Structure formats: C-alpha cells, structure tokens
Amino acid sequence: VQENVLQRVLQLPVVSSTCESLQRTYASTKEAHPLMASVCEVYERGVQGAGALAMWGMEPVVRKLEPQFAVANNLACRGLDHLEEKIPALQYPVDK
Length: 96
Known about the structure:
With 96 residues, the chain is mainly alpha-helical. The protein has 2 domains: 1-32; 35-88. 83% of the residues lie in helices and 0% in strands. Helix 2 (13-32) packs antiparallel against helix 3. It is flat, with a radius of gyration of 18 Å. The model has no long low-confidence stretch (mean pLDDT 89).
C-alpha cells in the first residue's frame, strides 16, 4: 500500500491536535451563537455540494494524471521523512 502524504501530515501530532482544537472552537462557537450556527450550516452545505461537483468534474483529469500524482506523492513522503527527522517537535501536540 502506497503512503499518502496528506494522510501522513494529518496524522502528525502537531497537525492533528491543531485540527482538533479548531474543530472544538468551531463547534463551541456554533453552540454559543445560534445566528452564527445557521450561517455556518448554509456555508457547510454549499462547500459539500461544490466539493462533490468538483470531484465529479475532476475525475477524468485525475485518472490521466495518476502516474504524476504518484511520483509527486512519493517525493512529498520522502520530504516529510526528512522534516520529521530534522524537526522532532512535529511529533508533539501543540500544547507541548
């Protein structure tokens, strides 16, 4: 199974803890402010619809460029290996 650089980045403790913190803040803001919650929900539905449409439209292009994506992903994974080796702080949550 080929590694996916995006999945690896999202699994880094510093990134995952930052994402979790942002999700908690977003959820608590929606809870505390009903008007903001309704605006956010409209925005979320719009983003989901646009994302689905974009994926449908991009599928033929992605299939054609798959070999180039695989090479770029491989290079990015090697670069991430190097960063993880040189910057140990990436292995710790933001609060540490």
